[in-house]
Amino acid sequence: MVIARPTTEHEVQETLVQFLRGIGFARRLWIGVDRDILTFWVLTAPVRPEVERDVYRVNMRIYERVPEARFNLIVVNPALFDDHDFHFDPPAGAREIPLL
Fold this sequence. Notes:
single chain; 4 strands; 26% strand; globular
């Protein structure tokens, strides 16, 4: 089993956090690591689907900065759920990354 290099994880995380701070509708961020793949869950404010897709633009920024990165980005947009009391619980073992 290969573990993600701490430098790679830090670079991917930092690139993502910088981007999310700039878009203004990201609310919370979590990371999980399974084998050598990083998974990020981004909870946004309720936004239109076309606005949500803008979050995925960060993929190219990450690959430009860290070409060897192996990661998944999952956007959780409450606007896509019928439940007005929507609450997202990240998977067990995920840790929150502050966006402040």
